């Protein structure tokens, strides 16, 4: 089901894969609070 994502997670160094359950192609619109939390957590680590 997530074959390409699995391959990318395996091949990219220092990757963190996040799965937002019960979403399809638009997790930012289907579960915006969870999506925003993940993105903001990622961005906070860059500062």
3D structure, described in words:
The protein is an all-alpha fold. It has one domain. Helices cover 60% and strands 0% of the residues. It contains 3 helices and no strands. It starts with a helix and ends with a helix. The mean pLDDT is 94.
Main features:
47 residues, mainly alpha, 3 helices
In whole angstroms, the N-to-C terminal distance is 34 Å
Low-confidence stretches: none
Number of helices: 3
Shape: flat
The overall number of domains is: 1
Radius of gyration: 12 Å
Query: What number is the mean pLDDT?
Result: 94
Query: Portion of residues in helices?
Result: 55-70%
Report the portion of residues in β strands.
under 5%
Main sheet, how many strands, which sense, barrel? none
Query: What is the strand tally?
Result: 0
| Helix and strand sequence | HHH
**Structural class category:** mainly alpha
What layout of secondary structure does this protein have?
Blueprint: H1 3-11, H2 27-30, H3 32-46
Summarize it.
This protein is mainly alpha-helical and 47 residues long. It is 60% helix and 0% strand. It has three helices and no strands.
